[in-house]
Amino acid sequence: MRIKKTKLHLYFILLLIVFGISCSDRFCKSFTSAVQVTCNGSNDSCYITLGKVFNFEWDSLYVFDSELYPEEVSKRLGVDCNCKIIQDGQRRIYFIKGDKIVKQYLSRCDKVNFVMMRDKGVVVTDPMTSFLMERKLVNNEISYYLFKQ
């Protein structure tokens, strides 16, 4: 009986680990690690193009802030997002190629900030746009600020 309980506990712990990994913020992690590699890890500032940071085929990047409705998102994308209302504190990130969504993320990442680029809660850019990236320590966490060049 004790062995069955131990196995049950092991399965429960594994399930929690898998659940925790699947719920992590993939956009934030992939962005910050790619920026660190692109900027050689130790620089406080460098110039980047997002086409090098996100190394796959895409034409446009859309970052939607919270409190936007699916109709608004679909209209800006020019394609049906098939999404829900973007909740407070969340962002939806879409990579578009032609008239298709090639990657999308739901993120709570506050470590990545596009400075002076928002138009009605939306950032739109392309893979070739150059940014000055500044890395700063904010509330004991590293944050990245992107300034369009």
Would you mind describing this structure in some detail?
The chain is an alpha+beta fold and 149 residues long. Helix content is 31%, strand content 34%. Strand 3 (91-97) and strand 4 (100-107) form a beta hairpin. The strands form two sheets. The protein has a four-stranded mixed beta sheet. Strands 4-3-2-6 form a four-stranded antiparallel beta sheet, with helices on one face. It is globular and about 40 Å long. The protein has one domain (25-148). It contains four helices and eight strands, in the order H-H-E-H-E-H-E-E-E-E-E-E.
Give a quick rundown of the structure.
The protein is α+β, with helices and mostly antiparallel strands and 149 residues long.
List the helices and strands and how they pair.
Layout: H1 2-22, H2 26-38, E1 45-49, H3 50-53, E2 60-64, H4 70-77, E3 91-97, E4 100-107, E5 112-115, E6 122-125, E7 130-138, E8 141-148
Parallel strand pairs: 5-8
Antiparallel strand pairs: 1-7, 2-3, 2-6, 3-4, 7-8
